[in-house]
Amino acid sequence: MKTRPNTSYTETPIRVAILIDGGYFIKRYNAMYNKSGKKTALTIANDLYTISHSHVGKNNYLYRIFYYDCVPFAKKIHNPVSNKCIDFSKTEEAIRRSELINELKKKRKVALRLGNIKESKRWLFYDNTMRKLLKKEISLDDINADDVYYELRQKGIDMKIGVDIASLSLKGFVDKIVLISGDSDFVPAAKLARREGIDFVLDPMHCEHIENDLYEHIDGLKSIPLYHQKDAKKK
């Protein structure tokens, strides 16, 4: 009686690129895992690395982690209410962002894509303050230095993400792209990637309010919980 030879099937590893919108990542990370704001840049970088590798899986291949952010704003500006000079390079946010960027530089397979901050050269009221003013719950005499902010906007980040998605897809460097973001500005790039046969997955980091355009032009939606958060719940 003949016996069939032992055969095994080995699935071909897929190449995965992780693209992370830094501004979005920090916002969601702080809301979920860093409400106290006391986590170090090293811890945040390690958690980012954990999330990225969880998307890749054990049997696949990490092509690269692309991290997009802006160099922290570093000018000195006078607050129009208090007339005190604010050194933006010494604010907690600027220091944390700089430290995180430095930690990510040390990580293997991480590529930094840094844009610049564009200033509108104007101060604005926070939404809550503006609502109170419009409802006449407060007057201009009640305004203090914490009720206003200097308007700053990221410059070049969306373009860099879109260019990398197109380049990775058209040159066939990867089989799968995971985008950690929640912005529909990337829809045209996502459509291009899918036309080129790329599996395009969105990780909104458990955000429930995803723009409808994104649902239509992705192949999957997956958020990765951090391992220590799950362990904490079990305890």
Please give a structural write-up.
With 235 residues, this protein is α/β, with parallel strands linked by helices. It has a single domain, classed as 5'-nuclease (Rossmann fold, 3-Layer(aba) Sandwich). Helix content is 37%, strand content 25%. The protein has helices spanning 22-33, 41-56, 92-105, 127-134, 157-170, 187-195, 212-216, 227-234, and strands spanning 15-21, 61-70, 76-78, 85-87, 110-125, 148-155, 176-180, 199-203, 220-221. The chain has a seven-stranded mixed beta sheet with strand order 6-5-2-1-7-8-9, sandwiched between helices. A two-stranded antiparallel ribbon has the order 3-4. Helix 7 links the parallel strand 8 (199-203) and strand 9. The longest helix has 16 residues, at 41-56. The N and C termini lie far apart (57 Å).
Overall structural domain count: 1
**Mean model confidence by pLDDT:** 88
Strand order of the largest sheet: 6-5-2-1-7-8-9
Sheet having the most strands: 7 strands, mixed
Instruction: Catalogue the unreliable spans.
Output: 229-235
Q: Could you spell the SSE succession in H and E letters?
A: EHHEEEHEHEHEHEHEH
Pfam families: NYN
Domain NYN: 137-198
InterPro entries: NYN
Protein name: NYN domain-containing protein
